[in-house]
């Protein structure tokens, strides 16, 4: 799965599943960058075939609604939607 990497401070493993056209997804990315967090992301709507289905399967494990943004932290916590307080807390 071709994740895009954004450099920053390593505050754990942050993986963002987003849509390229989603305003809340963009706000989540901007917040992560403002907080200086290193993270990976994928725009699910820009993927095709197996890469897209793999991303969808991964999201479903955490978020059965399959809504965006879905942010997975350290493979143990999931934040669905733009939750500024939750993201700030997770980023320490």
Computed over alpha carbons, the radius of gyration is 12 Å
Tell me the fraction of residues in β-strands, as a range. 15-25%
The ordered H/E elements are EEHEHEEH
Measured as a percent range, the helix fraction is: 25-40%
Query: CATH fold name, please?
Result: Glutaredoxin
- Strand runs, count: 5
> CATH H level: which superfamily?
Glutaredoxin
Strand order of the largest sheet: 1-3-2-4-5
Count the domains.
1
Morphology: globular
Give a description of the structure:
The protein is of the alpha+beta class and 92 residues long. It has a single domain, classed as Glutaredoxin. Helix content is 36%, strand content 23%. It has 3 helices and 5 strands; from the N terminus they run ββαβαββα. Strands 1-3-2-4-5 form a 5-stranded mixed beta sheet, with helices on both faces. The model has no long low-confidence stretch (mean pLDDT 96).
Question: Quick summary of this structure?
Answer:
Pfam families: Glutaredoxin. This protein is an alpha+beta fold and 92 residues long.
């Amino acid at each position: 799965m071709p994740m895009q990497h954004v450099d920053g401070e390593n505050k754990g493993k942050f993986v963002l599943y987003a849509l390229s056209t989603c305003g809340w997804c963009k706000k989540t990315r901007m917040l992560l960058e403002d907080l200086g967090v290193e993270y990976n992301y994928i725009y699910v709507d820009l993927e095709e075939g197996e890469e897209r289905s793999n991303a969808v399967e991964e999201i479903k494990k955490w978020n059965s609604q399959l809504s965006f943004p879905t942010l997975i932290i350290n493979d143990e916590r999931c934040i669905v939607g733009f939750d500024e307080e939750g993201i700030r807390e997770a980023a320490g």
